[in-house]
What we know:
The chain has helices at residues 13-22, 50-59, 103-116, 150-153, 208-214, 218-230, 276-296, 303-332, 339-347, 353-365, and strands at residues 4-9, 28-34, 45-49, 69-71, 73-79, 84-91, 98-102, 120-123, 137-140, 157-172, 180-185, 188-196, 199-207, 238-251, 255-256, 259-261, 267-268. It is α/β, with parallel strands linked by helices. Helix 7 (276-296) packs antiparallel against helix 8. The longest helix is centred in the C-terminal third of the chain and has 30 residues, at 303-332. The structure holds flavin-adenine dinucleotide (FAD).
Amino acid sequence: MKKQRICIIGDGLSGLTSALALKNLQNIELDLILNEKKKIGDTRTTAISESNFQFLKTIIKNFNSKLFWPSKNIELFFETSKEQINFLNFEEGEKNLMYVCENKKFKSLLLREIKLKKIKILKKKVSNLNALKNYDLIIMCLGTKSPLYNKVTNGRTIGKDYKELALTGQIEKNLKFMKAGQYFLKDGPLAILPFSKNKFSFVWTISKDLFQSKSKNIKNFIEKKIKNILKINENIKIKHLKSYPIKLNLETKYFNDNALVLGDGLHRVHPVAGQGFNLVLRDIKQLKEIINYYSVLGIQFDNSQILNEFTKNRKPENILLGLGIDVTRSFFKKNNYLDPVKKIFLKNLNRIPYLKKISLKISDTGLNFN
Ligand SMILES: Cc1cc2nc3c(=O)[nH]c(=O)nc-3n(C[C@H](O)[C@H](O)[C@H](O)COP(=O)(O)OP(=O)(O)OC[C@H]3O[C@@H](n4cnc5c(N)ncnc54)[C@H](O)[C@@H]3O)c2cc1C
């Protein structure tokens, strides 16, 4: 059988991970196209669920577990005018619930493995899909927006502009019993993510208006808030402060002919639940299974069949989870009328073990309950 030619475009986490997932499939020839431009390093961290972490281990032979800091607990807090209510704690005995890794180190790990597996790398900026006519399947992992998507997605999206910014940064502090936490503050959700013994990152989503009003002293504003919620007396210093505009964008059309969109281009979700790349990893896992099925049987790619099957399998979950995350964000948004009711509801949440279990399951494996 003639080998089927696949090309993956994009050097973000989605493109690099897809290349590793698809590399060793039978009857496949794979090229990875990376942008020529030198990039400023990504100083964010990414939280990965247990099942996705296990999947990464299956596709990265020279996996370095030390780069991924495990958390066995995740604490959730709700800020009212008077107090900070710790309304839910996730833990499952000795089981790790998530792993946090610095994006820069994660990408280096993926690139090293790509070189070891001798995946063919082409360095160029693709500006027209016609230049890739010789491929049986084109996988575009080009981030949130690219003119190359226009031919595929038709602008049929579920979306909104939150008019918010996610502020991210890192803090070095030797804190005893540092735990991962999500703080639903009046100004917006703030995630605290330990990624080493004495370092943690944060993601705080606030409105653009608030950001503007504090822009002259934004570092000070964040440091004060973090000291306050973590009850730290000494000074702390933020490194690598960055901001990202936050939008919801859920595509309804995943492919056209033999070109598929994958990664943040398919679904861009609010960072409140740390699910963006976790959704991508579940997509990659599914795509790998479908392509493997066809290639093992030696069936020539009829791409619409493969890509139809992928869309049918992944679109409902991606849309449901994307909207679910949006509802979560709205629920915790400050509302003077509803906040007293929310407080009563949240105070009782820890007593409903089933709800806790189901939330944990969804954030680990999505809507796949097998
Ligand atoms: C603040 C924040 C915090 C987050 N935290 C988490 C978290 O804790 N957990 C989680 O699961 N997810 C999280 N996410 C989501 C996660 O960061 C993304 O899902 C992940 O980085 C995947 O991105 P990507 O590879 O799809 O896109 P990108 O990282 O944008 O990569 C796309 C790449 O394609 C390249 N490219 C574009 N056009 C071309 C072209 N024409 N030719 C060649 N190359 C091209 C670009 O240069 C770029 O490098 C977070 C997101 C944000 C904004």
